[in-house]
Amino acid sequence: MMLECFPMRPDPPRLVPGRPERDWMDEFAGRHPYRCLPLTMANTTGWELLCPFGFEAEWDGRMGADAIQFRPDADALYFEHFAQSHFTEGVLTFHTGWMFRTPEGWGMRASGPPNRAKHGICALEGITETDWLPYPFTMNWRFTAPGVIRFEKDEPFCFLQPVPHHRIERFQPVRRSLDDDGDLAVQYRKWSEVRTDFNTRMAAGDPEAVKQAWQRFYFRGEFPDQVGVRTVDHVNKRRLAPLPEAPQPSPPARAHVGFTTWSAVGAAKAITDGGKA
């Protein structure tokens, strides 16, 4: 299948496959979060759009479009074609610079990058019917409190996932008893038994458990004590295709973790102005 990407300007933001790395995962003791396959799979199941330059945005808490002030870095070109205050009420709008066309029946989910929290502002998510839409969509974030936030150059501002959104309507939730599925019940109870035993031995400092460090059943697509047949469709690494002729992505830009509240901004301005608020 093809994801058709139509640039809306000569230098649109870079589109790169989702990358597994996250600052907080790197800094975690032993980089343990990378053992969590659902995390790394979510991080790589989509494409990132990267900021072409860094900038700060400041929201004073008012509802008007002029309530957000932008301070782009010196190398920012045509900033107003990239980010602006359009929808008011603390919403920061990004223009993706692309129009996307997906196969029939597929839409595009646009969100913030998975497992990459940003203090002071939150990504809004949307699903667009890109199998027929003849114009681009925007990516929006909303301030969670008045203050100053910053996006770094090459920091992801949008995460794109094609989704067969019509098919989800075919699902019908059904309540079942685990005892109705004998094989599943056996597999679950064996997992629970093995997991409890491992955690107990880890807590007691058992050398073998400490050396093992973590159980890899899900990572390997295996069942404890081989109570089930290993699935052939299991995936523990995903690397999506890049946009042809696009430069190879560097490691993700470190998210700017600082967030300045509006009260702190006001205090700093008062000092700068010689004590005049």
In the CATH hierarchy, what is the superfamily of the largest domain? Deoxyuridine triphosphatase (dUTPase)
The CATH architecture of the largest domain comes to Distorted Sandwich
Number of distinct helices: 6
User: Class of the largest domain, according to the CATH hierarchy?
Assistant: Mainly Beta
User: What structural category characterises the helix and strand content?
Assistant: alpha+beta
Q: Strand order within the widest sheet?
A: 2-3-14-9-11
Query: Main sheet?
Result: 5 strands, antiparallel
Low-confidence stretches: none
Terminal Cα span: 58 Å
Helix content: 10-25%
Question: Radius of gyration over alpha carbons?
Answer: 23 Å
Number of domains: 2
Question: How many beta-strand segments?
Answer: 15
N-to-C SSE series? EEHHEEEEEEEEEEEEHHHEH
Mean pLDDT score? 89
